[in-house]
Amino acid sequence: MEKQPRLLASQLLLKNSLFEVSLNRVLLTWKEIATKKKRVSGGIHHPFKVGFCFPKFLRRDKGESGTSHGVSVSEILAVRELDVDSETKDDGRWQKMPQKSTEAYPYAFTVSYVERAWQHRWRCSDVTFHCLEGALCQQWVQTIREQLTALTSRPKHLLVYINPYGGKQQGERIYEQKVAPLFTLASISTHVIVTEHANHARDHLRTEAELKKYDGVVCVGGDGMFSEMVHGLVSRTQRDNGVDQNSPEEKLVPCTLRIGIIPAGSTDCICYATVGINDPVTSALHIIVGDAQPMDVCSVHHNNTFLRYSVSLLGYGFYGDVLADSERKRWMGPARYDFSGFKTFLTHHYYEGTVSFLPATDILGTPRDKTRCRAGYHQPLFLLPEYKGGWRVIRGKFLAINAASMSCACPRSPKGLSPAAHLADGTTDLILVRKCSRFNFLRHLLRHTSKYDQFDMNFVEVHRVRRFRFTPRYCQSDSELDLRENGKRLFSQICRDHPACSCSPAYSSWNCDGEILPHAAIEVGCVTTPYNLLCKYTVHSESI
Ligand SMILES: Nc1ncnc2c1ncn2[C@@H]1O[C@H](COP(=O)(O)OP(=O)(O)OP(=O)(O)O)[C@@H](O)[C@H]1O
What we know:
- This protein is α+β, with helices and mostly antiparallel strands.
- It has helices spanning 35-38, 99-104, 134-149, 171-185, 200-208, 223-240, 269-275, 280-289, 318-327, 335-347, 438-447, 483-497, and strands at 6-14, 17-24, 27-32, 60-63, 66-72, 76-82, 88-90, 93-95, 107-116, 122-131, 157-162, 189-194, 216-221, 258-263, 293-295, 298-302, 305-310, 313-317, 351-359, 386-388, 391-404, 428-434, 460-472, 510-512, 515-517, 522-526, 531-536.
- The chain has 3 domains: 6-149, PH-domain like (Roll), CATH 2.30.29; 157-295, Rossmann fold (3-Layer(aba) Sandwich), CATH 3.40.50; 305-526, Tumour Suppressor Smad4 (Sandwich).
- Helices cover 24% and strands 32% of the residues.
- Strand 4 and strand 5 (66-72) form a beta hairpin.
- Helix 4 (171-185) packs parallel to helix 8 (280-289) and helix 9 (318-327) crosses helix 10 (335-347).
- It binds adenosine-5'-triphosphate (ATP).
- Adenosine-5'-triphosphate (ATP) binds next to helix 6.
- Residues 153-304 form the DAGKc domain.
- InterPro entries: ATP-NAD_kinase_N, CERK_C, CERK_PH, Diacylglycerol_kinase_cat_dom, Lipid_Phosphate_FormReg, NAD/diacylglycerol_kinase_sf.
C-alpha cells in the first residue's frame, strides 16, 4: 500500500501506559512505548486488548517496544472529547477515569470504531486516549473529524421503515435499543416510520416520500419488507424516468438511493446472503460506514404485464408449493416453513412445461465455478433441448425450477441455492430439477447443507441466464387440450385443495422472494447491466 503522509503523531496515555499514536488518511495506529520505563507512576498496568483483530483492518503486533494496534479510518464511527474531571456518562455508558492518569493527563478523547468479531459479526468498540494538554486533545478530535467528514460514501440522512409485525414482532425494540444509538453516535439523522399495514412502506416510497432529502432508505424487517422497499423505489424511479414497466424488453433505470436492511424478520435470507450474518448491530455498522453492494433486479411479467421484481429467489414447483402451503398455516409461526417443507417433500409433485432461456455467454464465470471437475456433465434424461437463435428451449417434468439472482444463503443453507451466483452481473442462475425419485430429491436438498455439489446430479442442471420464460404444459395451447386433459386440469385443482391427495396437480405457483405469484406462465428479464446504484449498505461476504 502507498505510504500515507502523517497527519498527527503524539505520545498519549491509554490505560496507564504510554502509546505512540499516529494518524494518516487511511489508518489510526497506536503502539505501546517500552512499558517498564515509561509507565506512568502509580498506574496499574493492565494488558490492553482491542479484542479480536484482523489483519487487513485492525492489526495488533507485538514488536520490541510493545503492542501496536491499528484501525482503518473508514471504520471509525465517531470521535468525542471526554470530561475527565468527573465520572462521565457518555453514550449511555459510565466510564470511571483512573485517578493517577486523570491527574497527569487531564484531557481525553474517545474513538469509536468497528471491531471485526467472529463469523462476519461486527461490533462497536471504544478506545480512550489521555492527553497532557487540552489544545492537543482538541487537535486530535478535530483532525479525526475532518477525516470522517471527507468520507463521502457515508449516509447523513436516512429514511427508516420499521415493520412492527415482522418475525418475532421485535422490530421496534431492535431499532430503538441496538440501531438508533449507533446512528446517533455516527451523527446520522433519521426519519422513522413504523408501518401500519402491509405495503405501507412500498406505497409511501412510490408516491409521497421526499426522496431528495435522504441518502438512503433502511428497512427494519424481513425479506418481505426488503421486497417492499425494492418495489417502491424501483417503480418510482421507472415512473419518474418514463420507463414502461410492463414491457419485458425495457431496460430498468437505476435508482440513486441505497437500501439498507436491519434484520428483524423470520428468515432474513437477503441480509444473510449479503452480509454473512443476521445481526442488527453488524448491519447498522455496515450502513454507517457506507458499505455498498450493487445487485441485480429481475422483472417478472405475464403476457406483457408487469407482475413483480425479484432480487433473490424465483421458485416454481417445490419452493412455490412450500410457500403456498406455509401461507395457509401462518398461525404456526416460523415452524410453518419446516412443516410445509416436509409435507411438500412427501407429496413429491412434479410439473410439466417448457423453459426457454437466453444463456449469458458474454460473462466470466459459471454457476459451477467452485466445481473443480466438470467431467460430471450429464445428458438430460427427460428433456429435449432445441436452439432458437440465442434461446435454448427445454421441455420436461420438473420438481423445481429455481432462478437465483444471489446465492440465497441462509443460516440453514450457508452456501445457498446457487453458491457461485453473482450479485451484480445482470444474470440469474436458472436451476432445473427434473423428475426423480424422492430419495434422489432428498439427496439433492441435503447437498445444500453439505460440502457436496448440489448440481452434480444427473437430474439437475444449472444455467446462468439473462432472460427466461416458463410455460406450463396445459397453458401452451388451449385448443390442444382434449376433454381428458380438461378433466385432468379440473381434477388437479381439486387435488390442490385437498392436500392429502397425492396426484400431481397441473400447476404450481411461483415463489417470488417469498411472495406468491398468481400466474404460472411468466417471462423474466434480468437487467443487463448491474443495477449499480440500487445498493445495499452491505458487503458480500461470501468468498466467491
Ligand atoms: N404494519 C404492518 N402490518 C401488517 N403487515 C405488515 C406491516 N408492515 C409490513 N407488513 C408486511 O409484513 C410482511 C412480512 O414482513 P417481514 O418480511 O418484515 O417479516 P417476515 O415475513 O416475518 O420475515 P421474512 O420475510 O424474512 O421471512 C411483509 O410482506 C410486509 O408487506
